[in-house]
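On clarity, I found the account of how folds are encoded harder to follow than it need be. Since the whole study asks how a given chain folds, the encoding of that fold should be made plain. For the editor and my fellow referees, an illustration may be useful. An entry of this sort, consisting of the sequence and the corresponding backbone structure tokens, reads as follows:

:::
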Amino acid sequence: MKRRNFLLSCAVGAGLATPVGRQAWAISNTETADNGKKMIVIMLRGAVDGLNVVAPYGDADYLRLRPTIALGRPGQDNGALDLDGYFGMHPALVDLQPLWQQKKLAFVHASGSPDATRSHFDAQDYLESATPGRKSTQDGWMNRLLGNLPGTLTPTRAISIGPVMPRILTGSAPATNLAAGAAGTRANVLDRPQVGSAFDQLYQGNEKYARAFEDSKSAHKEMMSASMDNEMQMANGGAPLPNGFPDDASRLATLMRNDPKIQIAFMALGGWDTHANQGSAKGQLANRLSPLGQGLAILARKLGPMFDDTTIVVMSEFGRTVKQNGNGGTDHGHGNVMWVLGGNIAGGKVYGDWRGLANAQLYEGRDVPVTTDFRSVLAQVCERHLRLPDNHLAQVFPAMPQTGSGLHLFAA
């Protein structure tokens, strides 16, 4: 087999059934999705600080535990944008304020994975498999969702935008990965497990070529590791910083309008592991949140009428410590905040079982506890919005406790 054909067959096996790269943004199809309902998931790799995304400025312990990074009260210079008299949104997210006022944006505080890990890699894996604590799960929950939704499975029914096919869409159902338009990637074809494994088998019987191939892989990994000069870059898992997100969000909206067959989309953004110099209303975190908010607002606007049939979920692997550290940042925590946007959202509200920041209420005396399992939020989106039949919900979220979340995120 010629090398070119071999690589193509490997790529198809990896789920890349359609062209990838900038030209793939031009895909167009006139067929419609089965029920017209769409879902977009944005994953913030690196653990965003939910306490400064949706700040409990009404809690006296918030300012006490964060003397230099807490947001000011609404009305103060660089203060939070008031949400409900107790919580305030980071001012860098001002572009989302109209969606909040239109009740098309909601937050779920003290949410996250019940697993206690503070490892970025394990926590991201659990978020994508939706089986916290279980590493043996082979597929991602969005791929299982595809297999359980009514209608015909096609390669473009689910798309991911990024350097490689993510864990969350890995599985037996076909999906397509498109390169981000503005974001670069250092990954090459050998970084895809299916392709690397195929090359391992190809050279298995030739000691000379096998050794050369292994040396090449080792050198590539070494260079990759050298370029990741701190934990923050490693926590990104290859995801780009949000700087290019507004452009990619615009392209995604255009793509979904032009191809109604696309029902599910996924994007990941990095840069949220703020161990040092996090900043308050301005600074490192604000510089990440600003393009994120701009991109989400652009996505909602450019989807046009389709936004009324779309739910956007923003999530991150875990939260950050309530108390700031000695470097003006925050460390790995537990509970976080999930964002839900859409035309049918019962928005303009901060949901969740919020217990305050008093020491007795904190998880292990340091973190916001997880009082809402992230899967209960996702399950409600699948059931109430995508109309996933009840008997299929357990197949998408097989290990989810069968207890009510008390959330009512969607309008009746």
